[in-house]
C-alpha cells in the first residue's frame, strides 16, 4: 500500500491507508491509546483500542520509526479534523533511547548550546523544521527571481591563495603543504564572471574568522551573491535587489506557507519602492533627534541603524530602508566613488527592521581606477582579478545577502545560531 | 534607448536599436568596416561606412566594451541574418591591452595552463561560456527534479572537527587555533537531515586533497547530493537518480539549448529503465571476454568500467549502466550490506560512457548496525552523527553526482580542468 502523508489524510476519509513517520508522542488512557505520528509535513493522530496493539505500542519510545495502516475517519476531536482508527503498527526502525528533549512540546525549552549539541534530534521539532523550510524557500526564491531576470548561476573556488579582499579574519588552510585561505566571499569571481555572462549569481558558503562571540555572526554562513553588468549606477542594483527580496518572500508563501503558519510569522511587505536615505542626511536626522554627535562619523552604530529602521517604518510604512552614499573610507577598494563628491560611494546597505541585511553597490570597472585604488600594494595576488578589467569590463555592481541573518530577523530569533542547522563559530565545530 | 540583445535583433528589423557588449573583432576593408559585438547570448554584426566612425573604431582594441546604436536590416551575408547599419559607437569601458588570445577564433589554441592562468579572458570565449551555461542548466535541472519529488534543499558545514568519513585526503584548517578539516562530503549531514525532512538535497563544494595530478580529479568540486528516507532498498534510490538524470538533461534543452547548439553536442538519452548489472556478474562477463583474471577482485579497473560502458551500449542501447552489489570491503562503513550475501552491498555506481559518474546506495539505519560497523573505533567524533540513529531513522539511501565530471564527459573534454571555471588542484590555487 502506498504511503500517504499526514497532510493528505483529509482527502482519504473512509479509506484504509498507510502512514509512516516518527512516534511523536503517545497517551495511554484506560481503554484507548492515542499515538501521534510525525512525518515531514505534519502529524497524524492514531487511535487504538485493540489491547494487543496497545500493549505493543506502549513499549515503544518516542522517535521510533513506525508504519501505521488504518482507516481514516473524520473527527472533531483530532487537531487536523481526521484520525486513523483500527491501526496495525509496524516498527520500521526502533529508537534505542529516550530522546534528550520532548519533541512533542510546543517549544523546546533546553538552552541553545544543548539544542545545538543534539541537533540531530532538536532539528526534528516542527518549529525548527519549519525554520529550515523557510530557509529553503528563501534560497529558491532568490534563484527563481534572478533566473527570470536573465542571470546565470555560477560556482566559484572556496579556497584562495591570498587574503586579498580584506586581509583580516581569514582561516588558513594547509594546501598540499602550501598556505591558502578559505574564501571570505565570491566577490572577485562574480565580477570576473560579469565579463562572461553579464549577470551572475552564486549561492554558497563563505567563511569569516570572526573572533567575537556575538549573537549576529557565524564563521560560516550562506551568502546569496548577485552581480550585474551594463548598469547605469548603483540604483539599478538596488532595483534588482528589490525584485529579489519580493521574489524571496513570495516564494515562502508559494513553497513554505505551512511553515509560515506553524511559526505564526507575518511576512514583511516589500514596497514597490524601498525608501532610500543618504548616509550624511541620515546622520543629520539622527543627530537632530537624539542629540548625539554623529555627523562626521564614518559608520553607523547599531543604535543608529535601529533608529533608521524606526524612521522608515514611521515615515514610509516600510520595514526596509536603503542607506546610500557610505563614506569611501569604510568600503572595500573596488567600491565606486560618487563623482560629484568623491568621499562618498555609490554603495548601499539595506536595513531590515533596523539591522543591516544586505551590502552592495556599484564597483569600479576601469583598469586604471583599480590601479589607483590599489596604489602602493603588491599587485601580484590581484593579477587574475585585474586581468578582467584590463580587457574591458562594463559598469557593474552587485550585492550579497546573508541568509541566516535574514531568517533570524524574520523569525525574531535572538541569536543567529538558533536558526542555523549546524552553526560554526569561535566555540563550535560539531556536530 | 533600452538595450536589445544580439539574439533579439531578428525581431527588430527596420528599427533603430541599441546593443552593447565586447568588441569581439573588427575588419577594416577599403570602404567599409565590420564590427562584431559580443554579448552574453551571441554576436551582433555592425557595418560602418561613415569615415569618422570607422576611424574612431579602428583605434579600439578587442574586448573594449561598446554601446552601438543603429538600424537593424536583414542581411543574407550576416551569420545571424541581420546586421546593424549607420551605427553610432560609444565606448563604455576601454580595454587597456590586446587580450592574451584571439577570442574570435572558433577555438582557443593556447595550452590549458595558459587558458587557466588567463581565465578572466578565456572564459569569455563563446565555447567556454557555453560550457559554463550547460553547468548552470544541469544544476538547475537537478534541483527542479528533486523539488518536484518533495525534496528539501539544505546547506551544511564545510568545516568539520574530524576526518571521520574516510580519514585520508583531507585539508587541515587552522580554526581559531584549533585543528579542523575541509568537509569531503555532506554525507553525515544529509543523513541526519533525512530525520527532519525525509528527502533532502544539497548543492555545494566538497574538498579532496588528491595528491595525484590526474585528468579526472579536482581538489574542489561541486557535489550534487541527495538522500531519501522510507525506501524499500537501493533500487528506489536508483529510480530517483534516473529521474534526476532525465530532469538534468531535459533542463539543458529547456534552458541552454543555444549552448548545446554552439558546442554541437548530442545529449545522451536517459532510458526509462537504466540497465543494471551485478558486480560479480560483470566480472564474469569481463573475464570471459578479455581473458583477464578479474573475478575475486574487489574493485573495477578503469578499463573494466569502459568495457561495461561498451557492453551497455551494445546490449541495451544505453550510455548509462548501473553496477550494483559492490563488495562491502570497498564501500564506506555506513553502506548497507545485502542480507542475502553479506560480503556484497546494497550500493551502486552509475557509469556514463564507461566512467563512474555517480556513487550511491542504501545506508545503514539501525543504531546497533552502526556500532557494529564502527567496532573498535573511537566513537567520540561520530557522536553528533550517531545520535540520529539512536533516535529512530527510517531506511534511507542517496547518491552524489560530481558536476564537473559529468560536464567533462558530456563535452568529451580530455581534462576535467578544461570545463571548470577556476579549478583547484595540486598545482593550482589561482586565479
Q: How does this model look, in words?
A:
Two copies of one chain form a homodimer. By secondary structure, chain A is an alpha+beta fold. Chain A has two domains: 6-93, Nucleic acid-binding proteins (OB fold (Dihydrolipoamide Acetyltransferase, E2P)), CATH 2.40.50; 126-419, BirA Bifunctional Protein, domain 2 (2-Layer Sandwich). Helix content of chain A is 31%, strand content 25%. Chain A contains eleven helices and 16 strands. The first copy, chain A, has helices spanning 51-58, 112-117, 119-122, 126-148, 187-197, 234-263, 279-290, 302-316, 367-373, 383-390, 403-411, and strands at residues 16-28, 33-38, 43-48, 65-74, 82-93, 152-153, 159-160, 172-175, 178-182, 199-207, 220-229, 276-278, 320-324, 347-352, 355-363, 396-402. In chain A, strands 6-10-11-16-15-14-13-12 form an eight-stranded mixed β-sheet, with helices on both faces. In chain A, strands 1-2-3-5-4 form a five-stranded mixed β-barrel. In chain A, strands 7-9-8 form a three-stranded antiparallel β-sheet, with no helix packed on it. In chain A, α4 (126-148) runs antiparallel to α6. The longest helix of chain A has 30 residues, at 234-263. Chain A is elongated, with a radius of gyration of 26 Å. The first copy, chain A, starts with 15 loop residues before the first strand and ends in a 20-residue tail after the last helix. The interface between A and B is large, with 95 and 94 residues.
